[in-house]
Amino acid sequence: MKVERHFADDTQRELFALVEEIADKELAPRADVEERSGRFPRETVELLGRAGLIGLPFPERWGGGDQPYTVYLQVLERLAYRWFAVAESVHLQVLASHGLARFGDDDQRDRWLPELLSGEVLGANALSEAEAGSDLEGIRTTAVREGDGYRISGTKSWVSHGGVAGLYNVYCRTGTAGLGSLTCLMVDAHTPGVLPQPPEHKMAVATLPTAQVVLDDVRVPAGMRLGRENRGMLVAASVFDHGRLGIAACAVGLAQAALDHATEYAKGRIQFGAPVITFQGVGFLLADMATQVAASRALLLEAARLRDAGRPFATQAAQAKLFATDTAMRVTTDAVQVLGGHGYVQDHPVERWMREAKLLQIIEGTNQIQRAAIARAL
Ligand SMILES: Cc1cc2nc3c(=O)[nH]c(=O)nc-3n(C[C@H](O)[C@H](O)[C@H](O)COP(=O)(O)OP(=O)(O)OC[C@H]3O[C@@H](n4cnc5c(N)ncnc54)[C@H](O)[C@@H]3O)c2cc1C
Predict the structure, then answer these.
(1) Which residues contact 259 (CB under 8 A, 6 or more apart)?
(2) Is this model's pTM higher than 0.90 or not?
């Protein structure tokens, strides 16, 4: 079933058609092979940057496309439909640029944004630590004032783009305990003392490196601070809200891919003399999958419309992230079921999509944390 999309004008329609072409030609044929090799496809992320896809939701002044989130998120969905890890990389790049675009000053934006948006420099957000997962009060990395700068010491965990990033947004403790004493500092990866560790061995998304980053007495000038000292949580909260939209978009793309693959398979697979889709047990499963994917997209785009209209959207973003990622997990798992034994082996991509979907329920705030945020809002 074709996805009906609504764009405001021909420019947006043409942009989406171009994205479909790039995703079909550059991403789809390579995803399986590259995910088995585990090599980070830097050149592909740079290609998407040059095509203007990373910069889509940012101002033209820094090389952006000035597009609303409703458009950017549908583009991200389409990339994830063809190769999740690359879409996730674009999403990370947008998030690493978001804090700078929103909280940075013009000097900082002029210096870093054009390179981030073109994909020339990769960015990363480093919040998590061994003792700070869902609970950021556990952050122990310190930034101590020294002259007109800071000295950073600590170890960040789970940094996506860790080891390939040229710029890290590092959340550090600049006061006594509490979320009110965190500060976001941009750290150039070439600074002495920035020591990325070997990548983690993950269940999936092998092409996107995730690594610990040790910060051993790293000196950064005060001009690399994003926003005010001890107000890092303002930056983090805004990054999280936008991050939840991006993750939801990736989830919709992954779920749509699994739905389409399972539907085509069920039409062609003959058992008991009939295509298996004609058996109610399979047909109803696919009907539920299709409905959940459509509902996820609708929830996501509603949250994005609020964001684009300048209205509060944090709760709607949490709902979209929760619903779309739980849907992606369910739909990819059910897709394996529709394919039977053929779904369990690597001849089809559905088992990989199922492993990839699991990540989405964990990152950008676990789905338990989304439920807690929604409950608080209620
Ligand atoms: C592949 C990958 C990439 C990542 N990339 C990044 C990155 O780029 N930057 C970054 O900073 N971090 C990143 N992370 C870290 C990620 O954000 C954390 O894993 C996530 O926030 C959860 O933290 P935790 O793993 O320590 O789990 P914990 O916080 O220890 O949680 C364990 C369990 O308890 C539950 N739980 C915790 N608190 C509550 C509560 N109050 N109520 C109900 N349930 C609760 C959780 O939902 C979970 O099920 C990444 C993680 C992975 C796996």
Answers:
(1) 286, 289, 290, 293, 331, 335
(2) yes
